[in-house]
Amino acid sequence: MNRINPPYQPAKAWAIAGMLAVMMLTNFLDKIVIGLVAVPMMAELKLTPTEFGVIGGSFYWLFAVGAVIGGFVSNHVPAKRILLVMGVAWALIQLPLVASASFLTFIACRALLGLCEGPASPVATHALYKWFPDNKRNLPVALLHQGSALGLLLAGLLIPTITAHWGWRANFYVLALAGMLWCILWFWFGEEGTVEQARAGEGAPDSRRIPYRRLLSDPTVIGNYLAHFATHWVLAAGLTWLSAYLQTGLGYPAITAGRMFALFIVITAPISLGLAWLSQLLLAHGWPSRLARSVFVGVVLIVAGGLLCSVCLPNLSNVQKFILLALGSGMALVMNSVGPAILGEIIPHSQRGAILSIGNAVASLSGLGAPVVMGWLIQVSGGGSALGFERGFFINGVILALGGLASLALMNPQKSGRRLWSLSVQRTAA
After folding, report:
1. 206 near 368, Cβ under 8 Å?
2. pTM over 0.70
3. Which residues of the chain are under the pLDDT cut of 50?
4. Distance in angstroms (rounded) separating the CA atoms of residues 324 and 308
5. Taking phi first (over 0 means left), then psi (-120 to 50 degrees means alpha), and beta for anything else, what does residue 315 get?
6. Residue 191 — φ and ψ, nearest 5°?
7. Where are the domains of the chain?
């Protein structure tokens, strides 16, 4: 059997990882575009900061629904097919925003986009896990999220330039075209992995099933979800408001703010990738995943939260504030690569897509509140000053540190793995 479906094919596996990273690039371009056109969009549509925060948050209204549905579907339908359908939908949803001046149209399209993008990260991660064994998963998932980072980098460079030359609405044409190009490439070259087919054929233990109530009540799963929620709160607030902070809070021109946004990604991307590599290196040197993954993530999130809170310290220069935000945000992103690996370690692969997607759904709930809370803080602080933004960053830091504490207190993959394995054996015996 292994000759037909070799358990690990590095060349093909990394090629698929690269294509999925490009998919996440287009995914994050779709997410960030609203934040990067915030200033001209608010001016043209006459939106208050709170109203703009509602548009930013509407992306997450149906995100959890889409994530859960996509996760359960991914347990039964090939990931290639699911990702292709989602990619086409992302591209088409951009088009109504080209001409609309309606507040409700923007909300409807962003909510629908969130519904279709909800399953993206967990389904892509689930697809990657079909190509890589457990001890090699941190880096490919980190690469997946580097696609997100590259999308943000390109967004910071391209979207302000496109806006300056052709207006902010032209960005939606570009996003639709980029999405369709990826779909064509994925249709021709995307494949399903065979690692777990080979393992299942050998009677691997993770081919068994466990009741979802047991999985969802496991402390490691709960701690993972809480830490993911905290990380996503920071991400949702930053994607919506960072560009506006650079322009209206710190006073940089739009093009300069776009370049600074790109620099922000240049700083954060290698930090998150390096931390994922370090966690994988600790595993390779024999550290138990309780330390190499769970404790590692918890400590990193607590430190990252402290850095974000430090933005409120008095007498900081704009450069110092920028560096603190970049370092804290980059460190927080380690949860996006190591967190799913923790779940992949303990969850039967026949149920993994659903558990990853439920986690993404829980995390996405933070997007309902983070942009609006920050928008309200900005508005009550005068709208044009840095104070409201920085109060929001402080709250982000506190939430992130709490997520780190949840990771330390609850996540123990070895203990959870033994418990869940015992449950699967009992269920099989019954």
Report:
1. no
2. yes
3. 1-4, 200-206
4. 6
5. left
6. -140, 165
7. 10-189+213-429
Token code pair at residue 213:
């109530």
Q: Which residue has the tokens 């943000």?
A: 152
User: Are 53 and 374 in contact, with CB atoms under 8 Å apart?
Assistant: yes
CATH superfamily ID and name for 10-189+213-429: MFS general substrate transporter like domains (1.20.1250.20)
CA angle 137, 141, 146 (to 5 degrees): 145
Token pair in block for residue 157: 């460079």
Backbone angle region of 167, left / alpha / beta, with phi > 0 → left and psi within -120 to 50 → alpha: left
Tokens of 66: 């889409």
Q: CB of 129 within 8 A of CB of 11? A: no
- Which amino acid, residue 223? G
C-alpha span between 91 and 62 (Å, rounded): 18
**Which secondary-structure segment (H or E) carries 38?**
helix 38-45
- Asked if residue 322 lies in contact with residue 260, where contact means CB atoms within 8 angstroms, the answer is yes
**Nearest in space to 73 (alpha carbons), one of 35, 116, 106:** 116
Return the half-sphere exposure (C-beta side, CA atoms, 13 A cut-off) of residue 85.
14
Closest of 56, 45, 29, 44 to residue 373, by C-alpha:
56
DSSP 292: I
What is the rounded (10 degree) CA torsion for 325, 331, 333, 338? Answer: -170
Question: Per residue in 359-394, pLDDT tens?
Answer: 888 888 887 788 888 888 888 887 667 888 999 999
Tokens of 377: 């803080």
Phi, psi at residue 299, to the nearest 5°? -65, -45
Half-sphere exposure of 59 (CA within 13 A, CB side): 29
Please say whether the beta carbons of 414 and 290 come within 8 A.
yes
Among the residues of 245-317, which ranges form H helices?
254-284, 289, 296-309
Query: Rounded to an integer, what distance in angstroms lies between the CA atom of residue 59 and that of residue 111?
Result: 4
Report d(CA 137, CA 297) in Å as an integer. Answer: 15
Q: pLDDT tens for residues 224-241?
A: 999 999 999 998 888 778
CB 376 within 8 A of CB 189: no
Spatial distance between the Cα atoms of 371 and 366, rounded to a whole number of angstroms: 9
Instruction: Write down the pLDDT at residue 108.
Output: 94
Tokens of 388: 């409201």
